[in-house]
Specification:
single chain; mainly alpha; two-stranded antiparallel sheet; 74% helix
């Protein structure tokens, strides 16, 4: 009885959070997608971020992702190889 009730409350909470998330995404996308164009994506920021585009921000994000991958992939592969080949089971 209690397990069924707890599961029902959990599903209700997940549903409510899902609806709120959907509403936020709908609001952001419906108001934001019409504003995106090639000029916005490539132009520099002006007036302290109040106007202009996001070109340098996108390039900086791309550099950060590449650097993170360059550090994480070799480390992750080395760790996986070490764990599967050199560590005893148990």
């Amino acid at each position: 009885m209690q397990e069924t009730m707890a599961r029902t409350v959990l599903y209700a909470m997940v549903g409510i959070v899902g609806l709120v998330l959907f509403a936020i995404l709908w609001h952001v996308l419906s108001n934001g997608l019409p504003q995106i164009n090639w000029t916005f994506l490539t132009e520099r920021v002006r007036n302290g971020g109040e106007s202009g585009g996001i070109g340098p921000t996108l390039v900086g994000t791309l550099y950060l992702v590449i650097l993170s991958l360059a550090l994480a992939v070799p480390l992750g592969l080395a760790t996986a190889i070490y764990l599967t080949e050199y560590v005893r089971a148990g």
